Amino acid sequence: MMDDERQSTQYALQMTKDAYLILSDGTEFCGKSFGYEGATEGEVVFNTALTGYPESLTDPSYAGQILVFTYPLIGNYGVPSSMIESNGLSAFHESDHIHPKAIIVADYSEQFSHWNAQEGLAAWLKREGVIGITGIDTRALTQKLRDEGVMMGRIETHPLPLPVRGVSNKLQYYGSTNWVERVSCKEVIIYKPDMPADSDSSISAFHPSPKKVVLVDCGVKANIIRCLLRRGVEVIRVPWDYDFNQLDFDGLFLANGPGDPEQCGKTVEHIRAFLNSSVRPLMGICLGNQLLARAAGAKTYKLKYGHRSHNQPVRLVGTNRCFITSQNHGYAVDDSTLPDDWEPLFVNMNDGSNEGIRHKTLPWFSAQFHPEACGGPVDTEWLFDEFVARLNPDSPPALPNREGAVTPAAEVWPAYKVHSTHSLLGRAGEEAASVLLLGSGALKIGQAGEFDYSGSQALKALREEGIRTILINPNIATIQTSKDVADTVYFQPVTPELVERVIARERPGGILLSFGGQTALNCGVELYQRGVFEKYGVQVLGTPIQAIIDTEDRDLFVKRLDEIGVKTIKSEACENIESVRRAAAALGYPVILRAAYALGGLGSGFCDNEKELLVQAEEAFSFSSQVLVEKSLRGWKEIEYEVVRDRFDNCITVCNMENFDPLGIHTGESIVVAPSQTLTNSEYHKLRALAIKIIRHIGIVGECNVQYALDPHSEDYRVIEVNARLSRSSALASKATGYPLAFVAAKLGLGYGLFELKNTVTKTTSAFFEPALDYVVCKLPRWDLSKFHGVSHQLGSSMKSVGEVMAIGRTFEEAIQKGLRMIGQGMHGFVGNHDKKQNDEFHYSSLKQATDTRIFVLARALQMGYTIEQLHQQTQIDCWFLQKLRHIVMIDEQLQEYRHLADMATFMDPLELIEYLEAPEFVSLLREAKVYGFSDFQIARAIGLEGSMKMEDAGLLVRSWRKELGVLPVVNQIDTLAAEYPAQTNYLYLSYR
To answer: Is residue 164 predicted with pLDDT exceeding 70?
Structure first.
């Protein structure tokens, strides 16, 4: 890795040259150039994915296009190697080169961090001759493309020519070029499976020798071939216009590709000949779906702006089964023109467009989305199992039928049922059902206020259904106990005895246990075990009791995950101190102790030796009768996923989060960033798929939180825990994404499917979706440790924080600086603070132990010249986060070079001073400071105004300069879908461009 000075110089040099995007209607966007410098033109499209930029850039379906990434931070994890596997395919890319003509991002990360990174994105673009632009308002650009449709654009990285409009009007129409011909292979290529078929593969039981599949290469992605090879078939890859009917093969596969399907007339002729002469299985993907439809006699049309993201929801027509898919296409099938013997297979749940077709009687089907999903979710990879299984005419179909009675090959329907709203309404002759909701316990860290949001949302959802609500919550200082939120409120402790008395009096038809934190869960489990629910005929809505027990009893939890091959931390459940001692000795120090059924990590802690172990064990047993001794993975990354499942087995992950601090600090104590910033597409979707696998196996209905430890040097992982309830993280995820998790979870507990609910932000799209963010969120904990004498400020696995703040920005630096101003510690951001302890001797070793003020210790260390590598060694914080903090310090240092402005402001006429400040270098620096989260106060302090005036006046003076120089904030709207669909709610934040 480069040292800090070389990285800083390189970053500054590559971001100084202006670059322009000129759309065909004359609209101009100006940014900074990175990557290759030159000029190009192409169709401008946007992609709303949060990860997977190397995979997207090597996707042939982007040929001839200018690709806009809506997620603002691109380049974080660098670019993986171009290593070629034994089968001739790229190990980490989808083809052998970049296909878009240019890319546009809001905030390019020149400095990257990942164990598998070979080079930075800019270096890769330069080598491939691809232009990159950063600093453009991609939200405004996306909104324009959304409202007016995709259009052609031209990019200039040289001085902008004067007759701009004349140039833009002459741009060639994208659909007039046969892009498939340009990206397709030029000769036949044969791929042999390099290993025996997996035992789980549907083909292995039927074919001892590989079946042959012809793959028509219209711009195929490498992972499509990998998916086929993994299932034990031989792949014969042929050019787009090759007459494959002359070959000997068992099945036909139509690959994805770019451009207008009308340009592929030769391919359509060959497919039509196949349909007229064969009953061999056929599967198509993306462009393959369109070509199959045209061969069958249907029509295709161009979408307004296409589907290019990793979160497109589709529904299997005629069933309750829904899937999250990865897509990249600008054309669609008009399924109203399908012949009578064909029918729609999938439909897009956002715009109603066709997402797949199938023949009613013959083994031919296709999907508009990408089941191979690289990048993207692998939720529909079972379609490959379906296709391969059909290569044997005796194999049973794996594709779900119209009633949903037959499931995909790799899935199992849950054995239990959840009662619907209708089974509650009118119960026992009542005019309306009543539901009891257990709120949180009394005021206590990790217990009370943080669950107020969840409980309030649940009560709102119940009231919307006309259900009478009963709330038990001893805390009067909450929203949920306010007038008219619940119909009846009991200000009583949430204990089994008192809850039973309320049940006996109110006779509710159902009870919700997941909205009051650990206290409510523990109480519900005990009531169940006592037979109270059965005695009074109370239905547990949402997640079944046994699923709660399976996740709360850590010994059972490990066994349940072992059943599905999901890794957990090596551990042993103990009932006494002696067994704890033996377990720790067997595992080897360091270890961590966790108390079962404990909230906020109470009783947990890391132990480096037996002396620490005995002290921690005594504390842990004071909270629980069961203590889990686990092998310590301190230093690994900590990642969380908020997962939702309905009773129809439809699953989504609403938000993923990454802890700024490595494993070893309770999530409630750590700075948390959403979405994750240092995970590749492979890591992100591997953990996402595991989270869905876990929630299905355990049987959760509603929402849960899955926490992982991820090895920072490989893709190895361990599941830390699963919270089968709304948690502190759930409230953060809801506010960070705009997705009302608790509201939706309550509806699902009543028996709704996700597809039956609306996205409350857009008001038009389905609640079955995964939010796409075009901003970054930072959560920072708040402490009141200074109010207590003798309390330790060291942080660990037991929670001490009493609250948290959430900040939203277009850059990580902006979000974290906003948050640091709000935590109540008297700070103004990451820099620009006058800490009363600032003159104390700095101890390098103080970085190693996390405290409530370590973030400011990091600031001081960076200002003193410590390198990123030195700080990483002490803290194990990912280098990308440290590099971003270093960027803040660099801007502060550049501002300090203008300290002469403080003297000039005292004697110079204001108008003359403004003329001086209009120098492009200062305006650019001032704008950069605001983009990266500096307040006017911080800027005033950096340039030395504090010495000549009160800081309040100094901040106002900087503000007046900004306004004169046109450095003004903009109001951004949170819409859950990165501006792909307009929002109907007033959820806003301020940012700078």
So the answer is: no
Token pair for 940 = 């005033």
Helix (H, G, I), strand (E, B) or coil at 934: coil
pLDDT at res. 516:
87
Report the alpha-carbon distance of residue 89 to residue 765 in Å, rounded: 38
Determine the Cα–Cα distance for residues 103 and 107; give it in Å rounded to an integer: 12
Q: Catalytic: which of 286, 523, 655, 879?
A: 286
Query: Which residues neighbour 147 within 8 Å (Cβ) at sequence distance 6 or greater?
Result: none
Residue with the two structure tokens 């009160």:
950
- Choose among 838, 877, 878: nearest CA to 856: 838
Catalytic, 607? Answer no
Let me know: does 224 contact 61? Beta carbons within 8 Å: no
- The residue among 132, 167, 105 whose CA lies nearest residue 36 is 132
What percent of the chain has pLDDT above 70? Answer: 88
Dihedral Cα 574, 577, 583, 587, nearest 10 deg: 120
Residue 828 annotated to the active site: no
Per-residue confidence band for 68, with pLDDT thresholds at 50, 70 and 90: very high
Helices (H), 475-516: 496-506
What is the C-alpha separation between 675 and 574, in angstroms, rounded?
A: 36
3-state helix, strand, coil in the chain (%, to 5): 35, 25, 45
**Active-site residue (options: 370, 419, 685, 872):** 370
Report the distance separating Cα 573 and Cα 23, nearest Å. 63
pLDDT in tens, 312-364: 999 999 999 999 999 999 999 999 999 999 999 999 999 999 999 999 999 99
Token pair belonging to 863: 């200002």
Residues 856, 780: contact at Cβ < 8 Å? no
Instruction: Provide CB contacts within 8 A for 902, sequence distance 6+.
Output: 943, 944, 945, 947, 948
Q: Which of 372, 804, 814, 928 is catalytic?
A: 372
What is the C-alpha to C-alpha distance for residues 825 and 605, in angstroms, rounded to an integer? 26
Cα–Cα distance measured from residue 339 to residue 80, given in angstroms and rounded to the nearest whole number: 45
Distance CA(251)–CA(440), nearest Å, equals 58
Query: DSSP readout, 354-407?
Result: EEEEEESSSSEEEESSBTT-SSS--TTTHHHHHHHHHTSTTSPP-S--TTS-S-
Facing residues of 67 across strands?
Answer: 45, 103
Provide CB contacts within 8 A for 738, sequence distance 6+.
761, 771, 974, 975, 976, 983, 985, 987
Q: Mark whether 704 is an active-site residue.
A: no
pTM of the model: 0.91
